[in-house]
Amino acid sequence: MKTKIVSGNSGIATAVALLKQDQVVALPTETVYGLAGNAFSPQAVASIFEAKGRPLSDPLIVHLLDISWLHRVVILSPELEKKVMSLASAFWPGPLTLLLPKKETVPDLVTAGLETVAVRVPSNPVMRGVLASLDLPLAAPSANRFGRISPTRASDVFAELGGRIPLILDDGPCHHGLESTIVWPYEDLEKNLVLQILRPGPITAEMLAPFGKVLSQSVSGKAPGSLKSHYAPRKKLSWYDPAQPPNKDIGLLAFSQPLNGYGTIEILSASGDLREAATNLYGALRRLDESSVASLIAEPVPERGIGCAIMDRLQRAMAT
């Protein structure tokens, strides 16, 4: 299969035409590039799993154009709906995914047989243009081989899935460069809203705190991208140990300051900005993975705000 990279309005039209035929295409979002297919079509969803080599036990995120589309894919009690709508209104469109009770119209293949579906409203204008023209929700995990580094540019997608999908819609580098925060909202016995973070991301615990009690405990397999091993380079990745001498056969992923003596060095943010570091994480990891060094090490970043999400991705990348 020949994979085309296109952009602009003609690219949106081409993507929509393919999606209407139950084919899959790579689309930009503000987080990472996604591999999208009609969320209501088991055939299209199966093609997503096949192209990525993704196990059927790992559920997918469903992307919606706006809050009004929620009722097309989820069922909420009146009490929970009011609280969910308040939360969604604060962060949508944007990098927040909510895990909610699914409607029967959502194929079990999307949710890995679970009774919940992960949904979000993306802010990327190209992705939104496709959703508006198609008028259907899109299932879209990251557009890479399963378990590998997520793509933040069209060229990354081509390196991962070239020859396996017909189209990549190019909109330049992703704004956040890190997958969405996944939250499971539910009511406790006192009917208070609990927000359990299943995967940390750009929407931090501090940002969620005004809306309910925040729990930061992931549940492996319940949400997309929550498996222990994920987001990994092909080369072995481990933590930087200051007690170990530098080695030219090792590539270093540094937070803000270069350290001499390593074969290849990537700096996430020279100013120590965690948001910038998150945006640069996957691109830096991919360049290190493609360099001539034999193995990789990563310097920990401060575990505050989005730093928690960076550390989560690095820990998963090492769990191979």
Characterise the protein shown here.
The mean pLDDT is 95. This protein has 320 residues and is α/β, with parallel strands linked by helices. It has 2 domains: 4-178, DHBP synthase, CATH 3.90.870; 237-318, Rossmann fold (3-Layer(aba) Sandwich), CATH 3.40.50. Strand 9 (181-187) and strand 10 (193-199) form a beta hairpin. It is built from 10 helices and 15 strands. It has helices spanning 8-20, 42-52, 70-73, 78-91, 108-111, 125-134, 154-161, 205-208, 274-290, 307-318; strands spanning 4-6, 25-27, 34-38, 61-63, 96-101, 116-120, 138-139, 167-169, 181-187, 193-199, 213-215, 237-239, 250-254, 264-267, 295-298. The strands form 3 sheets. A 9-stranded mixed beta sheet has the order 2-3-7-4-6-5-9-10-11, with helices on both faces. Strands 12-15-13-14 form a 4-stranded parallel beta sheet. It has a two-stranded parallel sheet with strand order 1-8. The longest helix has 17 residues, at 274-290.
